[in-house]
Each structure stands twice: as C-alpha cells, then as structure tokens.
Amino acid sequence: MNHTVLTGDRPTGPLHLGHYFGTLANRVRLQDLHQVFVLVADYQVIIDRDLPGGIQANIDDLLLDYLAVGLDPRKVTIFQHSAIPELNQLLLPFLSLVSVAELQRNPTVKDEIAHSSQAAVSGLMFTYPVHQAADILFCKGTLVPVGKDQLPHVEVTRLVARRFNERYGTVFPVPEAMMGDAPLLSGLDGGKMSKSRGNAIALKASEDETAALIRAARTDADRHITYEPESRPEVANLLLLAGLCTGRAPEEIAEEIGDGGAARLKGMLTEAVNEFLRPIRKRRSEVDVAEARRVLHEGNARARELAVRTLAEVRQAMGF
Ligand code: ATP
Ligand code: MG
After folding, report:
1. Rg of the Cα trace of the chain?
2. Ligand 1: which residues within 6 Å by Cβ?
C-alpha cells in the first residue's frame, strides 16, 4: 500500500537519540517508498512557554538534523506551521468536532502541563492536538511515525477524521500511528528524553559532551549490571540505548558487563553512542544552513498548495 506519511517536531532545541529511535529512523526508511511530509511545528513552541525564543536558530538546528540523519529533500517535503495559514483555518471546523472533556483528559497534555514553564495553562495547550489533526489531515496523511507520547494525539486525529466524514461526507482517511524501535526512550535522569528537559543526548553533541552527559547519568546502588526494566529503569535504559546503537540485545550487554558496574557500562555506552552518531555528525558538519533554509522554503510552497486544495474541499463538504 502507498502511504502518505506526516510527522514533525517542535523547534525547541536540537534533536536527540529519542527522536532518532522513536521516529527519525522510520522517516528515513519510509521516504524511499512513500510520500513523506515533515513538519517544523513552530506554532507549537508556545504551547508550554510564553515566548518562542531563539526560534530561527532552533529551526536551523532542526533542518540540519533532518538532513544529517538522511532525510532527502528530493523525496521529503519539509515545511513549517507558520507558513501555511490554511492549517489554522482547518483548526476551526475540527475544534467543533471534539468536546472539552475529550481535550481535558489527554494524558500527554497533562504530562506537558506538569513540565510547563508557564504559571497558567493556555488554551493552546489544550487545543494543539486538534491543530495536529489539521497537520496530518491537510495532506490526507495515512501513517504517522511518532513516539509513544504522541499516541493520544493521533487518536484525536482519528476521531476528527471519523467525525468529519460522518457529518459532512468522506473527505479524510483515518491515519495510523507507527512507532519505532524505542517508542519512549528515557533521558539521563530517568524521565522521558526531551529537548526541553535537559536530559537528552543531542545528535549534534560533540564526543566530549556526549561522554560528560553519560558520565552524569543516573544509575543505582547495585554494582552488578542486569537488564531489569521494571526494577532498575535507569540502568535498563542505558543498556537499551547501548543495544540500539550497536544492534545488540541489552540482556547480552548486561551479561558482558556484569560486575564491571556502572562505570564500565557508561564507558561502553559512550563509545557506542559516539560511534553510532559519527557519520550523522559528519554529514551535519557538511550541510550549509542557507541550503537547508532553501529546502524549507520550497517545502512550504508545496505544502501550501496542498493545504489550499484540502481547505477548499472541506468548505465544499460543509456547504460553505
Ligand atoms: P520538547 O521537550 O520540546 O517537547 P521533545 O523532545 O518532546 O521536545 P517533540 O518535538 O515534542 O520532542 O517530539 C517530536 C517527535 O519525537 C514526536 O513524534 C515524539 O513522539 C518523538 N519523541 C520525542 N521524545 C521521544 C522519546 N524520548 N522517545 C521516543 N520518541 C520521542
Ligand atoms: Mg514534546
């Protein structure tokens, strides 16, 4: 089957290993067979902070990361929210399709509120999952490669698509989420690895920075290394990361390290991560920012054309 793939990231900082194993690897894989759209979700930056702060630098970072991991601009359309006003227009009818209670019980929104830097929760925090429905449905997306935190949002999109089709006649496909090898990679403090939570290994970090980050990672008091995700989540996460970077089973790595303790595990992990990221980092250093911005500019034009068409279809279906 031929898919239309849509997914994206907030320009809140450089991409990290959670992105890579959660969604980027899938995007790169899918680009050869399907039509892939990648969204720079710039409006979403202000869901949990007052100002978009340093937005242009963060967008540049995101673009460089995309190109570094192997997204090919000849195959993939990279575009940004703020360049496609039709997405905001789709938001309006879509909002009418969901209830306030449905918006309020979204577990990812609750988690993001808990980590928000804002004193008061904004309306955007509750409604951005519906904006995301517009992001996915404007291109009639059928497949959404995301991390586990995004599943409730994809559920909102499915709800919006189904309800729209029921009320106004079939316009939209009902998309599926697709998870990667690590649907929810933990950060070095044990919580979800996130750009905004200071617990991530950025793809672009230097080898020394990577070593320092891993050295400071939380572990536990038991010197003997075992892979027990339930009872030893921090150690298990480091083993999982080492496994992902080397293509080996975390249990096997644990056995090999055994009484070597956290120090040996961290040394091994540092090497594994740096080796895994070396070609990505090298490619990143070769990409030109001006070229990356051109890619976004062209992607914006392509996405806009499609959004205008879908919005017209929506208006017609609704009888406007
Ligand atoms: P922020 O802290 O600013 O929200 P983030 O690290 O959560 O940043 P997003 O831009 O919100 O990154 O998410 C982009 C994509 O990466 C989403 O599909 C999300 O599910 C996925 N993702 C983010 N963090 C992880 C993780 N730790 N493990 C797996 N997937 C992840
Ligand atoms: Mg996030």
Report:
1. 20
2. 7, 9-10, 12, 18-19, 22-23, 146-147, 149-150, 182-185, 192-197
Question: Which ligand is closest in space to the CA of residue 187?
Answer: 1
State the pLDDT at residue 89: 98
Distance 201 CA to ligand 1 centre (A): 13
What are 302's strand-pairing partners?
A: none
Global pTM?
Answer: 0.96
Q: What is the pLDDT of residues 87-113, one digit of tens each?
A: 999 999 999 999 999 999 999 999 999
Q: How far apart are CA 47 and CA 49, in angstroms?
A: 6
**Nearest C-alpha to atom 23 of ligand 1 is from which residue?**
19
d(CA 139, CA 109): 24
Query: Which ligand places an atom closest to the C-alpha of 14?
Result: 1
Per-residue confidence (pLDDT) for residue 167, from 0 to 100: 98
* CA separation for the pair 232, 235 (Å, rounded): 6
Each residue's pLDDT tens digit, 203-241: 999 999 999 999 999 999 999 999 999 999 999 999 999
Give yes or no for residue 53 having a pLDDT over 90.
yes
Q: Work out whether strand 143-145 and strand 176-178 pair parallel, antiparallel, or are unpaired.
A: parallel
Q: Which residues are registered as beta bridge partners of 77?
A: 37
